[in-house]
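Internal QA ticket QA-208
Title: Verify multi-chain structure generation after dependency bump
Assignee: T.L.

Test input:
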Amino acid sequence: MRFATWNVNSIRTRIDLVASWLDTHRPDVLCLQETKCRDEDFPVEAIHRLGYETVLHGHDHWNGVAIVSRVGVEDVRRGFTGPQVAPFDEARLIAARCGGVDVYSAYVPNGRALDDPHYLYKLVWLERLRAELMLRGGSEDETLVTGDFNVAPTDEDIYDPRRWRRRTHASAPERSAISALLELGFVDLGAEDHHFTWWNYRTAAERNMGLRLDLALASTPLSATVESCVVDVAARRVERPSDHAPVLITTSSE
DNA sequence: ATGGTAGCGCTGCTA
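Actual output:
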């Protein structure tokens, strides 16, 4: 099977790009983040025409996540289990069973700055994700947790670590939160290659000033079947690209 | 230390 994750930075702006990318690569499942639209405004037709189903979790024009699948979508969960209390009711998490694999599409809060309340929100959000995965017992199942984690797990995941020392995405507590997810029994599939997945629009992306923020965490049983995990940088060599590149995961299972 | 771009929806917020 093939899975993908992509922060598209507005699905309405990027729908033609996403549809042609789906048509070219034909993954079984594509997880989307930052769709930035209400569910009724999501351009599902172009995706359905290609033989995919969509399950959406959007709210206004912020955040927004989705799962696109051609191997079925069952047991759909939107947000965290339990009461939807602000700000944890933001549209940042959707999960579903696709072709026998439990798939999560996550958009972790940015954090903004180390002294911003949003940074604490980010840490607590990651802890809630850990609780969600732990209570679900997903690590013993075939589970894939993908998305934009807004954390560069190591200094090797940053073009210039010194520059990011006092910023979010690279702080020790954020990295600990990612480690805590892995300790549940997940493997960070991009951890060996450290290929970047995000480039700031405001700086020279052509000089590869990027970060690895989009992760694919595979449960131990699923990770045993993984053949490759690659970043498709070609998807950014278009007019008006997303600031993120899609990540493609291939497993040996049918 | 700062500024640079993009998207949304309407003027500033978020990233």
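Spot checks passed. The first strand of chain A starts at residue 2 and ends at 7.
Status: verified.
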